Amino acid sequence: MATGQIFSKTTQALFYNYKQLPIQRMLDFDFLCGRETPSVAGIINPGSDGFQKLFFGQEEIAIPVHPTIEAACNAHPTADVFINFASFRSAAASSMSALKQPTLRVVAIIAEGVPESDAKQLISYARANNKVIIGPATVGGVQAGAFKIGDTAGTIDNIIQCKLYRPGSVGFVSKSV
């Protein structure tokens, strides 16, 4: 990866708290970008185990579902991005757990309403451990032609119209604390 670049065409992510639409939109983006493998390596859904069927282009794929962050990190050691769709009630705790995993280097927190003191603690820990926090209250991010987080950039139609599936400029949107 180039200096200062957060994502690449080989970036893999773990998705916390199963949400079908944002995951499917990530997979649609991946397919349009010509990725060889989906960017979503695994899903963490506390207490659940198994597989979730989704689409990568026209092909139905099974993405592993893990009951804990630790189990997902052990099963997918190349996944270095954690996309947290937890509610504001549990987003800080699950994000801190992710930050403590040696394989994860970027944590994106989608939840709004995370207490400022919790956000400051997360940011402090991330800085001290050379990790990146995106959010809380982010809509995500996109690196054109490479990787996107959740619902960022919208539907396939918008991605095609804006030509975000092609490598090029970096677009990023995030709300600061």
UniProtKB/TrEMBL annotation:
One term of GO molecular function: ATP citrate synthase activity
Organism in which the protein naturally occurs: Aegilops tauschii subsp. strangulata (Goatgrass)
Subunit relationships: Heterooctamer of 4 alpha and 4 beta chains.
PANTHER family in the cross-refs: ATP CITRATE SYNTHASE, ATP-CITRATE SYNTHASE
InterPro entries: Citrate_synthase, NAD(P)-bd_dom_sf, Succinyl-CoA_synth-like
GO BP: acetyl-CoA biosynthetic process; fatty acid biosynthetic process
Name the record gives this protein: CoA-binding domain-containing protein
GO cellular component, one term: cytosol
